[in-house]
């Protein structure tokens, strides 16, 4: 299977799980970094499973303002090998914390992301909603804290500013 031209990298990891009937079904972890526009439908469909009654999604989109400044677009950069590795660790941690989770997909866009378009989409399926909802929140919070992806805001005035996530573990380390 070939990757689209703008697909920087995606990695899938199959994990053997047993459903309630005792059937072994391969769980799937998908992490993807791409310059292409993200598709909510594609990400959501990638985690659908007949034994799951819940698919929970988080969609992070570019907003049009920040601290009174009009934002026209964001630009993302990543250290791709480490970003993929950290995203896989997040999937592993989710499986330890919520063993009933079936499929996990984390897609993050790189490059320019215009206002109202998705920068990140996370989808998780599980038999019941509480596990997938909790796991999605954990995923986005941990992604922002640990994955080396950097965001630049570009304003209407043509000024720009690199943003550091407040959740990021290394955010305050330079100030000390």
TrEMBL record:
**Could you tell me the EC number(s) of this protein?**
2.8.1.12
InterPro entries linked: MoaE_sf, MOCS2B_euk, Mopterin_biosynth_MoaE
Q: Name one GO biological process term.
A: Mo-molybdopterin cofactor biosynthetic process
Q: Which domain of life is it from?
A: Eukaryota
Pathway membership, UniProt: Cofactor biosynthesis; molybdopterin biosynthesis
Keywords annotated in UniProt: Cytoplasm, Molybdenum cofactor biosynthesis, Transferase
Also noted in the record is: This protein is produced by a bicistronic gene which also produces the large subunit (MOCS2A).
Biological role: Catalytic subunit of the molybdopterin synthase complex, a complex that catalyzes the conversion of precursor Z into molybdopterin. Acts by mediating the incorporation of 2 sulfur atoms from thiocarboxylated MOCS2A into precursor Z to generate a dithiolene group.
The similarity comment for this entry is: Belongs to the MoaE family. MOCS2B subfamily.
Q: What is this protein called?
A: Molybdopterin synthase catalytic subunit
> What is the protein's species of origin?
Acipenser oxyrinchus oxyrinchus
């Amino acid at each position: 299977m070939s990757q689209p031209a703008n697909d920087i990298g995606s990695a899938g990891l199959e994990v053997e799980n047993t459903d309630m009937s005792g059937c072994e079904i391969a769980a799937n972890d998908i992490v993807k970094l791409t310059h292409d526009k993200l598709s909510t439908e594609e990400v959501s469909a990638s985690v659908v499973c007949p034994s799951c009654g819940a698919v929970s999604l988080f969609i992070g989109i570019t907003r049009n303002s920040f601290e009174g400044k009009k934002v026209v677009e964001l630009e993302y950069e990543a250290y791709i090998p480490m970003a993929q590795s950290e995203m896989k660790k997040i999937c592993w941690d989710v499986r330890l914390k919520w063993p009933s989770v079936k499929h996990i997909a984390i897609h993050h866009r790189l490059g320019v992301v215009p206002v109202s378009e998705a920068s990140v989409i996370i989808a998780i399926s599980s038999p019941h909603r509480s596990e997938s909802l909790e796991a999605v929140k954990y995923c986005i919070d941990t992604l922002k804290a640990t994955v080396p992806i950097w965001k630049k805001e570009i304003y209407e005035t043509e000024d720009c500013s690199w943003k550091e996530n407040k959740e990021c573990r290394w955010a305050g380390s330079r100030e000390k």
